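Milestone 3.1: sequence recovery, worked example.
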């Protein structure tokens, strides 16, 4: 199994400096930094570290991920970010679970053993609510349907007809619910969410919550396999 790691960045130089030295090259086939137009030296720091860097032509999280997919020959893709929220040590755990035959594996920040240092009460409530709705509507048994630390197979990506949702942060829930609806093997592994390192948080909970609601309903009613 060949896996590529897509490190999605937008002004994350502080996190990049502290987190990327903990990412072992032997864990994956390629490490590709996909940058959305950083102005804080993120790209320069990544190149200084010897990392491969691609600049996305569009905007948003989903577009960055697609940029990686289109540049990769791997059969599995890992979505990831160096902002400090994700623990590098979870990367080989994602790969191992995918090797067991799962089409998509998502790190859960809300499992019984999880430590969450970043999500406040509102974020925690929202994540649990949207995951509960996903489980009820689509018949899944997830504890976290939204996290951006995940691995998905090329085959699964081709079967969910993933499309760029711009800057709405709807790409992760789209990947989740379409995989479930398609009958893919999808699961969580227990993980943590650590405190952000530098940079600026890019998610506004209220508009994102509205967008997630629309995305779930739209895919439940209208998306056809």
């Amino acid at each position: 199994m060949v896996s590529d790691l897509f490190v999605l960045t937008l002004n994350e130089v502080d996190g990049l400096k502290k987190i990327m030295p903990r990412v072992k090259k032997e864990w994956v086939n390629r490490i590709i930094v996909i940058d959305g137009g950083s102005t804080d030296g993120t790209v320069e720091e990544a190149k200084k570290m010897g990392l491969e860097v691609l600049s996305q032509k569009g905007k948003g999280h989903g577009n960055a991920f697609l940029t990686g997919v289109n540049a990769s020959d791997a059969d599995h893709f890992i979505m990831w970010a160096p902002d400090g929220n994700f623990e590098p040590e979870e990367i080989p755990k994602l790969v191992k679970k995918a090797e067991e035959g799962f089409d998509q594996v998502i790190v859960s920040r809300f499992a019984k053993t999880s430590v969450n240092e970043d999500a406040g009460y509102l974020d925690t409530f929202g994540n649990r609510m949207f995951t509960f709705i996903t489980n009820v509507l689509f018949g899944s048994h997830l504890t976290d349907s939204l996290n951006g630390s995940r691995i998905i197979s090329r085959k699964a990506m081709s079967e969910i007809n993933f499309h760029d949702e711009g800057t709405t942060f709807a790409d992760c829930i789209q990947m989740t619910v379409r995989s479930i609806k398609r009958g893919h093997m999808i699961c969580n592994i227990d993980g943590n969410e650590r405190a952000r390192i530098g940079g600026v948080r890019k998610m506004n909970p209220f508009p994102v919550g509205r967008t997630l609601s629309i995305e779930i309903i739209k895919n439940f009613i209208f998306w056809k396999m």
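The chain is about 40% helix and 15% strand. The beta strands are 3-9, 30-35, 52-55, 76-80, 104-108, 150-153, 186-190.
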